[in-house]
Amino acid sequence: MRRIALPFLRQREMLLWHKPEACEFADIAYLTGFRGTTAWAAATPRGVWLFVDARYHERARNEAHEGVRVVEVPAGAKPLEAVAHFARAKRARSALVDPSIPALVFRSLRRKLRASGITTRLARKPLLREARSRKRPEEIAALERAQALTQAAIEAALASLAPGKTTERELALELEWQGRRRGAERAAFPPIVAFGPNSALPHATARDARVAQRGALLIDAGFVLDGYCGDCTRTFWIGGKPEQMFLAAYNTVFRAYEAARRAATFARSAEARAIDAAARQVIDASIFRGAFLHSTGHGVGLEIHESPFLSRWSDEVLGGGEVVTIEPGIYLSGKFGVRLEDMVVAGEGRVLGSEVPREVMCR
Fold first, then answer.
1. Which of 17, 282, 287, 334 has the fewest CB atoms within 10 Å around its CB?
2. Nearest alpha carbon to residue 308 among 325, 292, 327
3. How far is CA 258 from CA 66, 232, 283, in A?
């Protein structure tokens, strides 16, 4: 079984994770390899156990990492009861539970374990945050494949664009199709396809409005491949020579992107807030001061948004090996928005996939 640094505090302690039905929570997938909709996982100094209900017995056996022991909960039985029985059988003295667990489930678990003399505590922070933040070489390779697929899907979808005819929604559907036909399991998030004033909304929703013959087109997409996410944003100019204001915004965002990427290239460590500040200072020193409406980036892995978060409020420190997005933007209400985004290996500063182009991309 691959080694994962687990925060054991003492012998006869158990760590527990629970993934509620259809919840976006990837710690159990990271720990065990199982990517079903719901499960429990337990870890002790002696190993890792995965608890699944009858729907997932065969799938869990097929997906679990080598060395992970699968506990097949019988049909009609409650997985929580199986976990409590397991804790008693292992003679655990205490259980430390990942804070992602729903409050009602935690209370039920604590009540059952207390009856057996087992102390149950809620961890102050996610138990696998540090382990998941720094990516192993095989994870970085998987992320690079997902990003390459995402970028290829964006290019293919753009090739189908007929300005004046194609709507934002049609282009978004084409983008999803291009990702799926290239092998993506799913979109990591609903793709953002926004033209003109709609692109000034950082998280715009694709509309039935047509992409006109002239203006800014922002596309933000990500696809999941082998469990890992891609995430890429490009802003294009449709129809001839770009307007001067758009050129100025694009060039400013590109310089902010470069500044943040330099800040994410380091020998020992870097503060997440310092990477955000590097991008923000470029934009705030320009005529677009105050038009950068979100944080500079976030970690990417089994989830599209995960630690570390590159924001002005973050107290996280990057040590190298994290994969983060660099995605500064400028948003001018009623006019247009510009965002440029790549995935970067922190420390190295290496971009996964193709890099943001310095020059405006015209279509």
1. 334
2. 325
3. 41, 16, 12
SS (H, E, C) 117-149: CCEEEECCCCCCHHHHHECCHHHHHHHHHHHHH
Q: For residue 232, give Cα distances in angstroms to 13, 83, 138, 307, 354.
A: 42, 40, 20, 18, 10
Q: What are 276's two structure tokens?
A: 């955000």
Q: Which two tokens stand for residue 316?
A: 């996280």
Q: Are 28 and 63 in contact (CB under 8 A)?
A: no
pLDDT digits (tens, 9 = 90+) for 99-128: 999 999 999 999 999 999 999 999 999 999
| Angle (CA) 57 130 269, round 5° | 150
**Dihedral (Cα; 107, 110, 111, 117), 10-degree rounding:** -170
Within 13 Å, how many C-alpha atoms sit on residue 293's CB side? 13
Q: Which domains does the chain have, with CATH numbers?
A: 13-131 (3.40.350.10), 134-362 (3.90.230.10)
Type of residue at 44: T
Q: In whole angstroms, what separates CA 29 from the centre of its chain?
A: 14
Q: What CA–CA distance (Å, rounded) separates 334 from 329?
A: 15
* H runs (alpha helix) in the chain: 27-32, 57-63, 79-89, 103-114, 129-133, 137-159, 168-181, 244-263, 272-284
Average pLDDT of the chain is 95
Q: Hey, is 89 helix, strand or coil?
A: helix
Answer for the pair 103, 75: CB distance below 8 angstroms, yes or no.
no
Assigned token pair, 52? 């699944």
The reported pTM is 0.94
